[in-house]
Amino acid sequence: AEQLLINSEKLSVAGQLAAGIAHEIRNPITAIKGFIQLIKSGVSDKKLYYEIMSSEIERIEMILNELLILAKPQMVHSDREDIRNILAQVTTLLESQAILNNVEIITECEPDLSPILCDQNQLKQVCINYIKNAIEAMPLGGVLNIQVKMLNDNRLLLRFIDHGCGIPEDIVTKLGQPFYTTKEKGTGLGFMVSKKIIENHNGTVSVFSKENEGTAVEVCLPTVS
Ligand code: ADP
Ligand code: MG
């Protein structure tokens, strides 16, 4: 009976995801079809229509790229990595986006950090997701603190603390549900994908947030000696 229950739970999650995907991808496709019709009918200003069509196609690509990460069951490569290297690469990658949004990223790492066993690309994806969310939560700019320290049980604690819009209490539980987004150009998949990757690495993630004050995302990961 227990197995049956697990299976039916899985089915409903899969069904929920399928419905979400169908909905999210149907919208841009309907728009593209409409614009093709308009162009066929011989409108004069095609340039704008082509631009909207390509941005809608990009949106479909973005959704599919994030979903493909979910399709990967386990770590593809598992190597000993220093979290500082991963953070340095990711913050460099996002530097221009941070500067454009007046966000200063301050990284503080304890000196003695054990390495973690991880798929570097997947873990970078996680950090990118949380840093982007933090930048997007501070439309007027501000400071994003990234802190790394060792816990007593040899796990690593990685914190992303922003001073942005925060998340209302009743919404925090919705994080990780597919396609929940408050952004015009959001996919609502970043949180779900990141959580899945962290769980694949035997880690955990918790979110602490206060509306209009900010958000802290805490990731715990096992280390190797
Ligand atoms: P997306 O960024 O595409 O919207 P996510 O899964 O990354 O999707 O995030 C889902 C939603 O959670 C966001 O739309 C936003 O409302 C909220 N959120 C996530 N991170 C933060 C944060 N640091 N501060 C405020 N809200 C956040
Ligand atoms: Mg996001």
TrEMBL record:
Keywords: ATP-binding, Kinase, Nucleotide-binding, Phosphoprotein, Transferase, Two-component regulatory system. Residues 20-225 form the Histidine kinase domain. This is histidine kinase. The chain holds residues 393 to 617 of 617 of the full protein.
